[in-house]
Design brief:
By secondary structure, the chain is an alpha/beta fold. It has 13 helices and 13 strands. Helices cover 30% and strands 14% of the residues.
Length: 419
């Protein structure tokens, strides 16, 4: 079996399914478990820290782990950095067969910090019978020192190991999401996967074609090269639930406009500015023709759309023609929004009118930017869905990491994201 600790909504599982393999996921969050069930993934709902390791001994080919990142992430208080010495101590003890977690947990500033040591408890148990054959782990970049500790211990047990930072955009993910990765194998010399994409497309040489350019949000969302739709208006409140931002009855009209594809300005991400987003705005969306009128086109060139990764002061803002910054969610302060900015070129002498109001990203859009399929069955309310999406490993990145372990090749055609 392939055991997936902290399996979340199925980022690793989706990658394995594309590669023709299935795993068993251990996950605590009930909504992530519901998502996994709807996606047809095998799941044990449990606390990874309490679940015994012995059921997997003698039957595990691969071990995957993406411990919760909230204690380490820049989106939170980052108390995991203060707890890091305790986590290192727990890993060292567990590798030697000493379970000191209860004592160390009482000293941790964030009880989630110690979850990053849990994979070693499983690895120590499995190593007694020469398993697993391979290991793949992923976390936020600040966890790299811990992964290097894991690497040193795994090498003592006969593994070839690589640990380092990878940028998901280098592997076709429309997001410059950097993650600390650990790869280990008993069966082959481990190296990080060769990047398939670069910030700028590379020319063909005598040695073959160069890498493709980074995938933009517009391309990932199917906006096309010239006719870019306005970002999907997200009725129903923010990721944390929140108040209904549109009057009762407008939700259906907005949904109809989205599904019909009728809102497609002819310039890059541009829309006519609107001062109000009530019923009148909804009616405008639902009755627009397939192409804007000349008057609307003349006005729409003033604005282009960008994605703001969160509401914090250091938020990354990227044009739709670029990959997104790292998407993370969890509370209203971290919601992602589409924002309009003045276009780079405007006719001389013209002044810009008021920009359109920001539009919250939808779960479908956020999932696509994480390389989940457009029809992935996210469970729960908006907050629960966004939390799952932000915490997941991008399946396309995961597939690049897992394919060498499984001795299969990964084709770009394997990942078709559109519904």
């Amino acid at each position: 079996m392939i055991v997936d600790l902290f399996a979340g909504p199925g980022g690793w599982s989706r990658a394995l399914a594309v590669l023709g393999v299935r795993d068993v996921g251990l996950e605590w969050d009930p909504w992530a478990c519901k998502t996994r069930a709807s996606a047809g993934q095998v799941t044990i709902r449990t606390d990874v820290a309490l679940y015994p390791a012995w059921p997997w001994v003698g039957r595990t080919q691969g071990l995957i782990a993406s411990p919760p990142c909230q204690a380490w992430s820049m989106a939170g208080k980052r108390l995991g950095l203060l707890d890091q010495p305790l986590v290192h101590e727990a890993v060292e003890d567990l590798a030697a067969g000493r379970d000191t977690r209860t004592r160390l947990l009482t000293a941790c500033r964030d009880e989630r910090s110690l979850l990053a040591a849990e994979p070693m408890r499983y690895l120590h148990a499995l190593n007694t019978v020469g398993q697993p054959e391979w290991v793949a782990m992923e976390e936020v970049p600040d966890v790299l020192p811990l992964w290097k500790q894991y690497a040193a211990l795994l090498r003592r047990w006969g593994f070839s190991v690589w640990a380092g930072i990878l940028n998901a955009a280098d592997y076709g993910v429309p997001q410059t999401r950097k993650r600390a990765i650990l790869l280990a194998s008993r069966a082959r010399t481990v190296q990080p996967p060769e990047p398939t994409h670069a910030p700028v497309a590379e020319p063909e040489t005598l040695f073959g074609p160069g890498r493709a350019g980074w995938v933009s949000m517009a391309d990932a969302l199917g906006w096309g090269a010239t006719d870019r739709p306005v970002p999907t208006v997200c009725a129903g409140g923010g990721p944390g639930g929140g108040p209904e931002p549109f009057p009762s009855g407008s939700r259906k009209m907005l949904s109809g406009a989205r599904e019909s594809g009728s809102w497609t300005p002819a310039t890059s991400g541009a829309v006519p500015p609107s001062q109000h987003r009530g019923a009148g705005y909804a009616t405008q969306l639902s009755t627009r023709p397939d192409r804007p009128t000349p008057a609307e086109t003349a006005e729409s060139h003033r604005w282009c759309w960008s994605l703001r990764s969160n509401n914090q002061a250091h938020a990354t803002i990227r044009s739709a023609d670029e990959p997104a910054g790292t998407l993370f969610f969890g509370h209203r302060a971290n919601e992602c929004t589409w924002v309009a900015a003045p276009a780079a070129t405007q006719p001389a002498g013209e002044t810009s009118t008021s920009a359109p109001e920001p539009i919250r990203i939808t779960a479908r859009e956020a999932g696509l930017l994480q390389t989940f399929p457009a029809d992935y069955p996210w469970a729960g309310n908006k907050g629960q869905q966004f939390s799952q999406i932000g915490n997941a490993v991008p399946p396309l990145l995961a597939a690049h990491l897992l394919a060498p372990h499984l001795r299969v090749s990964l084709s770009p055609d394997n990942f078709t994201l559109a519904a």
